[in-house]
Amino acid sequence: MKAAVIAAPKGARVENVVRPDPGPGQLRVKLEGCGVCGSNLPTWEGREWFKYPMAPGAPGHEGWGVVESLGSGVQGYKVGDRIAFLSGNAFAEYDVVGADSAVVLPSSLAGKPFPGEPLGCAMNIFRRGDIQPGQTVAIIGIGFLGALLTRMATNAGARVLAITRRPWALELAAKYGAAECIPMDDHHRIIQRVKELTNGDFCERVIEVVGEQWPLDLAAELTRERGKLIVAGYHQDGPRQVNMWLWNWRGLDVINAHERDPKVYLEGIRMAVDQVASGKLDPTPLYTHRYGLDSLNQAFEAMKTRPDGFLKALVTF
After folding, report:
1. Average pLDDT over every residue of 31-37
2. Backbone conformation region of residue 73, classed left if phi is above 0, alpha if psi is from -120 to 50, else beta
3. 35 with 314: CB under 8 angstroms?
4. Which of 3, 25, 59, 60 is most open to solvent, judged by the fewest CB atoms within 10 Å of its CB?
């Protein structure tokens, strides 16, 4: 089979490798596609603690496809089932995954891309946020996750204040239900605007989806007394400083909405399947860029530079 191999920093290439066979309790999946995740940028860019070449298909973890072969003892699946799954080697034509790491996709989603891991991630962030009808929810950073969270919070009856840098992303947030769209340009001006929109009370929920210091600082400023600050951005470039006085004074609940338990991830994927299949959530417009397996370097470069209109890249087969 063909698989992408990151042989050196910024050096992904396609190689012919042995197609894996499923062991007991495993499924072999013929990939339809795999999303490209921003959390893997350091892997592609290169860091001194990574070892190259990486395993074939790594670090692809947003795959979906069709069950092609069953290992012994597998129940609840059949050849031809279309699934989303958790793995770390999905930048390849085939992958082998545990039967307990997959979710069957209904026929109503036939032909539609379904990178289950990030969709499940959005659902789990939403669940951890405990968003209720009538609340004001600020979402800082309108990319793929931010747009999905905007729609889900709006569907839940909350008023969403979308805050983001890119002008076209403000327009996207409005399409996904945001009541107010605020340019992320000036720290104090944003605080003043949110204060005006909330009669000085600020927001019951603030979700930070950027993963940088300034948005985290801003998120705390916008969270009301006894509100919840939900950290959904992936902070991977070093330690952070926080305004502990402000957190203490307002009595904030600070929630890191990243999950590591595969069972929790799978529950999020199942919830995402229900939301998308029912029409309550439509992620399709958010898949803005598609690449072949031999263009993985370009996919990661687009993820890094985020040209106008970029939200989510998919590698498709």
Report:
1. 97
2. left
3. yes
4. 25
